[in-house]
Amino acid sequence: MRQFTRRQALSLGLGAGAAAVLAGCATPGTTSVNSAPTIGAASAGEKIRITYWAWLKDLQKVADVWNAQNPNVQVDVVWIPGGNSGGYQKLYSALAAGGGPDIAQVEMRTVPEFLLVNGLVDLSRYGADQYADLYDETLWNQVSFTGGVHAIPQDSGPMGFYYQPEILDSVGAQPPATWDEWADIARELRAAGGVYLESFPVSDASVFTAYATQAGARWLTAEDDGWVIDMTDEATLEVARFFDAAIDEDLVDTASTPYSPGWFAAAADGGIGACTSASWGDALIAGISGGEGKWRVAPMQRWSNLPDSFGSSFLGGSTAAVLANSNHPKEALDFAVWMTTSPEAIDALIEYSGIGWSPAKDEIGSVREGAGSDFFGGQAYNTEVFEPATLEQNTEWTWWPITQQSFNILSDGFRRKASGVSLVDAVATAENQIVQAFRDKGLTIRKADS
C-alpha cells in the first residue's frame, strides 16, 4: 500500500482543512493532537491505568497477563458492541465529547474513517516505526498513512477453502486450484444431486471485495491531486462476470449468507459442500451440527486468467488504535505491541478471545502450530494453508475514508441481481455513487480514466 506524504494528505479533499482529513488526528473541532507536543511517558514509579474498548470476548483475561507483569501500567478492558452494531457510534460520541478510551478496537477498513474525524494518534510519534518488522507487511501497510502509523494490527483473516471431502468425492473432485475448476465442481454437484458447492452473499459486499482484492483490484488510490477510483478495472469486472454466470447458472446459493442459520442447516444436511472464507471461519464451521471429522481446508483457488492476481486474500481484520484523547499514548502503544506480538499474549488471545489470525510476522500462536482440531480430522491447516496464505496477499490494497458506506452502496446494487441487474452493471453504478459520496463529504476524487 502506498505511504501518503503530508503533501498528498493536504490535497486529498478538504482544501485548506485537508490536513485534518488524514494527516491530523484529534477530537472533532479541536486542534490536531498530532500537531501538539508529544505526551511524555509516565515517570518512574508512577502508577497509571489505561482503558481499552473492544468487542472481543474475555479480553480482560488477556490484559490481566500484562497487568501481572506491569504493576505500574494497568489495563482495564470495557466491552462494547461490534463496530457497526453500535461500537463505533459510542467511540465517535466519546471523541466528540472530549473523552473515550486510550485504545479502541477498530477494523482495518475503518481506520481511515476515524482519521477523517481526527480521532487517532499518529503512533510513529511514539516510536511505532521501530516495530514494523514484527508485523505482516500487508497488515502494517493498511495502518500506515501520511508517513505515520495510525493503529497497531490486531488480527486478520487470510483466506482458504473449507470443504467436505465426502461431497467433493461424490463427483470425483479434489479441492479446486482455480476458480474455473471451482465452477466445474459446482456444476457437477448441482447436476448430480442438487448440492451447492458454496453460497454467494449478495447482501455482504465484503466477500466480493475480498475476491476482487485477490484478483488484483485496487479500487481507491491516493494521488497528489486527490483520490482516484477504479472499480471497473479488468480484475473487478472478471470477478463480477464470473459470479454473474454462477448465479445465472444456479451454481451458488444466494438465499443464505455464510454462517447464517440457514447456511448452518444446509451445511449440516449436506446441501452445501464448501466455504471460501477467512482463517477465523474455522471456529464458526466447527459449530456445524454433526460435522466433526467431515471438513478439511485447502488453499484458496486462484484466478488463473489474471496474471496480476494473488494466491489468497483477506477478509476482516482489526486494529488496536490509540484514540486522540488518550493521556498515555506511549504506554498504550507498548501494551498494543505486546498484545499483538508476544507469544504469551497471542496464545491468550486465542484461548480467551478466539482472536483471528495473528498479525505478527513470525508468531501464529502455539496452539495453531500443532495439529488441527478433531473437527478438521487433525489436519494442521493453520501451518499448511493459512500461514503460507499470508505471504500471497494483495499488498497494494488501500482502504478509504468511506469504506462502509461504499460497501452498503455495492450491496444495494447486488441485491438487484434478482430483478435482472447484473453484478457488472451494479459495480459500475456503485462506482458513480461512491464518487458522489466522496464529493458530498468534500473529498476530491476522479475516475481512473478521466
TrEMBL record:
Which InterPro entries would you find in this protein's record? Bact_solute-bd_prot1, SBP, TAT_signal
Arranged from A to Z, the UniProt key words for this protein are:
Cell membrane, Lipoprotein, Membrane, Palmitate, Signal
Instruction: Give the signal peptide range.
Output: 1-23
In Pfam terms, one family for this protein is SBP_bac_1
The keyword Signal appears for this protein? yes
Q: Which domain of life is it from?
A: Bacteria
UniProt cross-references to PANTHER family, sorted A to Z: ARABINOSE-BINDING PROTEIN-RELATED (PTHR43649), POLYGALACTURONAN_RHAMNOGALACTURONAN-BINDING PROTEIN YTCQ (PTHR43649:SF33)
Q: What is this protein called?
A: Extracellular solute-binding protein
Native organism: Labedella endophytica
